Amino acid sequence: MSDFFEFFTRFLPDMLKGAGITLLLTAEGLSAGFVLGLLAAYTRVYGSKFWRGLAVGYIELFRGTPLLVQLFIIYYGLPGLGLTLSRELSAFLALGFNSGAYQAEYLRGSILAIGEGQMMAGRAIGMSRFRVIWHIILPQALRLAIPAWSNEPVSLLKSTAVVFLIAVPDLMAKAKSIAAQTYDPIGSYLAVAIVYLAMVYLLDVVLRWLERAARIPGFEMEGRKA
Amino acid sequence: MSNFFSYIVQGTAITVAVTLIALPFGLILGLLMALVHTYGGKILNRLAAAYSLLLRGVPPIVLLFILYFILSGRVINLSPFWAGSLSLGIVSSAYQMEILRGALLAVGGGQMTAARAIGMSRLQSIRYVVLPQALRIAIPPWSNEVSIVLKDSSLVYALGVPEILRRAQQLSATTQEPFLAYGTAALIYFVLVFATNRALDYLSERTKLPTHS
Amino acid sequence: MPNPILETRNLTKIYGQNIIFKDIDLKVNEGETIVIIGPSGTGKSTLLRCINLLTSNDGGQIFLDGKEITAKGYDEDKPRQRIVNEDKVRQQIGMVFQNFLLFNHLTALDNVLIGLTKVKKMSKEQAKTKAMEELNRVGLVDRADHYPGQLSGGQQQRVAIARALAMDPRVMLFDEPTSALDPELIGEVLGVMAKLARDRMTMLVVTHEMGFAREVADRIVFMEKGSIVEEGSPDDLFYHPKHERTREFLWKITELYGKKEKGKADGK
Fold first, then answer.
1. With 80 as the cut, is the pLDDT of residue B73 above it?
2. Is the separation of the CB atoms in C188 and C178 below 8 Å?
């Protein structure tokens, strides 16, 4: 037990470097995913048939295939079509597109939950469709989505772990290098698991704060979507 | 070309096999933990809660590696296929535990009360009254978990198991057509996920309890 | 008078700082219908749940057919067995709940059957015959294959009564059986209960239905703030209440239900 503690503290600085990359990837993927997801959700609710079809196609494709496969297609597959991207960019795109598809569903759910009534009320005072969406529907929808949406940052943080397979130097990659150095794979991956747990816990704390800060009194939505 | 095709299709069989081992294993383990959490005493409740938090707070691939090294070590020696499948099952059990817990809660304490009121023991009440209802309620979120396990089976690639993705990689090397190889892999996964979702939606419909017409 | 079929002595229930009820002495004789009335929240429901051991009590004893069912501890001769097997006791005390609590995944028939096959270990054929008998008793034979989701509230409650009756209990407990029903459905359930009373089933009923209390009860018990204020025959209680609080409560309740007592001599 104390051996492990020693082991852990010895490699902590190294692991934290990897953790930093993991957090960076998470933040990037989450933001890109948010933009894509919002766009896709908006299109699915308010877009014309053609754009709706595209949005659905995007969502179904990225939710219906594994992230790892998506990563490999971007990093290994695209060069076959003449488009070679760096490993960092590939990871970013894979995580971003993947997360976007899931965020789209959360956001679509809450946009729909806000409902017809608000749109009618907004137009009744002379606002254009776009204005209603921008000033009335989205502010409410985004707040409402937070409880269910909070699943996504944690999920994304955990998903980033696969990018080590294309040699991105994240926390998991560190684990691999530590294992190679110490010939103690179980210890290395356990140590890394603890760091992931810590990150997830911190993220959870932040998200719960966010939930409280964004609450509209008297107006809550059930439930976490799977 | 047909070699290419059959090679990847064999990978599909492996992927499906991994999923079909992981899921029931996860279900039984998850069900056990859910019952322990809901009906066990304070200590068991806390232990079960810890089980859930630990297994869900760590990326599946990290757990896969830890469990793989444990399960293919000197004490137990399993092949990567089995080590990977069972590890996925253990990871899934924590998520299935949460699904089942939610379902047990949704059934409600009243059903247990009514069962005990006609003289059923706790065990009988769970077995004949609470569980049949909980399992029905659990089907929609559970279908989601099935898709997730199917997709996560791709992680055993990292253990060297010759499933779809690993084969796609080999094909991409031999044919020098990486986009085609990986694209095919994606397509197969997509079809698998789509088909299982459909099948489970059907199941959900068929097991619905009749209400007022 | 032979021994009461059900008796509580000094029964007490405390929840945190609150005394739900204290020192309740109740005697129920075979074939009697006792109705308990009183303001909401006076622990009447909790009392019923203590009697069929669904809830633990904090003092006092309960006797069924002369045997103490609240006895704790283990059998001297059979060390691993408790003196009182609570599950077995509950087979002898039937309970009908305010919100029916039918098993949603089973048809009406199966709801009544399941106790017979799984608890009483009857054969399927015997159980089916008995179950149909009980459904007939409550007038729902033609709904035997319906699920609770397909039945009205009144029908569900009647199936719940059949389910409890099927176990051939010594005593039937009713916990506000019509409080969750739409007004037009109350009658069918009270009708079944009245029939049971006429057939000399021993019943302990908590209800706000004063008409039922007056017509069907052998004895009425008025409970308030955790103790029994007064008990007596319907005539005694309604027309000659001894306590002021009894009078006040009955006045309020008959006002509420719009029924004026004929010849109420002592009303305020």
1. no
2. no
The ipTM (two decimal places) reads 0.90
Shortest distance between the Cα of B99 and any Cα of chain C, in A, equals 19
C86 and C53 Cβ atoms separated by less than 8 Å? yes
Residue B66 pLDDT more than 70? yes
Helix H or strand E segment including C94? strand C93-96
CA distance A169 to A18: 6
C66 DSSP assignment = T
Nearest to C177 by CA among C91, C55, C95, C54: C95
What's the whole-number mean pLDDT along residues B128-153? 94
CB contact under 8 A, B57 and A201: yes
Cβ-contact C27, C51 below 8 angstroms = no
Mapped onto helix, strand or coil, the DSSP state of residue C264 is coil
Nearest to B62 among A76, A80, A196 (CB): A196
Contact C105 B119 (CB under 8 A): no
Buried b (16+ CB within 10 A) or exposed e, A34-65: bebbbbbbbbbbeeeeeeeeebeebbeebbbb
Q: Which residues pair with C61 in a beta bridge?
A: C9
Burial class (CB in 10 A: 0-12, 13-18, 19+), B203: middle
Question: Is the pair B, A in contact (3+ CB pairs within 8 Å)?
Answer: yes
Question: How would residue A140 be classed by pLDDT, with cut points 50, 70 and 90?
Answer: confident
Q: What is the pLDDT of residue B1?
A: 61
Helices (H), chain A: 2-46, 49-63, 67-72, 87-114, 116-124, 129-131, 138-149, 151-159, 171-182, 185-214
For residue C8, what are its two tokens?
């509580």
pLDDT digits (tens, 9 = 90+) for A210-221: 888 887 676 655
Contacts of C30 (CB under 8 A, 6+ apart): C2, C4, C5, C200, C202
d(CA B139, CA B120): 26
Q: Is C8 helix (H, G, I), strand (E, B) or coil?
A: strand
CA nearest neighbour of A146 among A216, A198, A201: A216
